[in-house]
Amino acid sequence: MQYAVLLYADADLDAGPDAPEWQQSLPGHQAFNAALQERGTDYSGAALHAVNAATAVRVRDGERLITDGPFAETKEQLWGFYLLEAPDLDTVIELSAGFWEAEHGTVEIRPVIPMPGG
Amino acid sequence: VRAANATASLVETAARAERAAVLAVIAREVRDLALAEDAVQEALVAALVQWPRDGVPQRPGAWLTTVARRAAIRAVRSRARLAPDSVALERLEAFDAAGAPPRLGDAQLELVFACCHPSLALDAQVALTLRTVGGLTTPEIARAFLVAEATLAQRLVRAQRKIRDSGIPFAVPAPEQMAQRLAAVLGVVYLIMRPRPVAIACASTCATRR
After folding, report:
1. How far apart are CA A24 and CA B103, in angstroms?
2. Taking the CA atoms of chain A, what radius of gyration do you get in angstroms?
3. What number is the average pLDDT over the span B62-69?
4. CA distance linking residue B131 with residue A50, whole number of Å
5. Dihedrals φ, ψ of A40, to 5°?
6. Which residues, numbered 4 to 43 in chain B, qualify as contacts with chain A under a Cβ-Cβ cut-off of 8 Å?
7. What are phi and psi of B71, to 5 degrees?
């Protein structure tokens, strides 16, 4: 099965290598990467710039509305994500429990809908 | 007539006794409770037709498991056209080819852990466990929860779907997770085993808290 692991952290936190939280979260990500490489699992992922870099796109009645910021005011921001293959939910829970984001924010695990022929 | 009645009650007794165990074996292979329930239902219907005619087989559970497994394979295959699930099919066919006797007790324990997985809401855990492990019907559980039958049926369907779609494993948890997971199971068992009025109150409180 394929899973998306979504990492959420405080909306006020800055993201990127200069942020102290970035450094604090690194060991968790290195451990995660090492665990997946050891399993030989296919995976990908990305770290995202903080919400103040976000752009919202909406089309209403054919008109394009471009605004700043995330689509909703939330206490937590999407901070990064992984896409990985795993045999079951418990495996992903186990892998996700080591994240700094799990201790200081929330890690959301979402199963990916399999596409026909995909 | 008496013979027919006797057979009918034999069939019913065997079916009641074996249903939960057969369901557990099929469910862990397909990891899909709704599909497993349909397959077991199909096997029970086949038993109602064949057993009065041919006699109750020596091992009714094994008979029901074989028929239910075939029904499950058919269902997985037809579903595979929409979304391929080669894993479930492989698991089912491997089991079929090996003809290994199912470890009924283990499968039921694994089913309990799946139904009481912490990623399911507590009321869903209780309802699912009552239904799949306890063998209670949806109307019976709805009465215990003091909710409409349709509401409970929908709650069960959603929980079954979550087990399937999130890949909740039918497995006994790893030793380091055991204490926490066992506590969740015991919490559900506690709600189920308490004297009825209390169980009803607890279950409905849990339901309304969400």
Report:
1. 46
2. 16
3. 93
4. 46
5. 70, 30
6. none
7. -60, -40
Residue B80: pLDDT over 80: no
The first and second tokens of residue A63, run together, are 């008109």
Cβ density class A78-94: b for 16+ within 10 Å, e for less: bbbbbebbbebbbbbbe
Q: Which two tokens stand for residue A3?
A: 């899973």
Q: Do A89 and B84 touch (CB under 8 A)?
A: no
Residue for token digits 């912490």? B118
Structure-token pair, residue B112 = 């309990």
Cα–Cα distance list, B183 to B69, B93, B190 (Å)? 32, 35, 10
Using CB atoms, which residue from A87, A90, A114 is nearest to B173?
A90
Nearest chain A residue to B162 by CA: give it: A111
In the prediction, which pLDDT does A118 show? Answer: 53
Mean per-residue pLDDT for A110-116? 88
Most confident of A107-111, B85-89, B205-209: A107-111
- DSSP H helical ranges for B81-133: 86-98, 104-115, 122-132
For tokens 């899909």, the residue is B32
- The ipTM is 0.81
Q: What is the pLDDT of residue B91?
A: 65
Q: What is the pTM of this model?
A: 0.79
Check residue B197 and give its pLDDT: 47
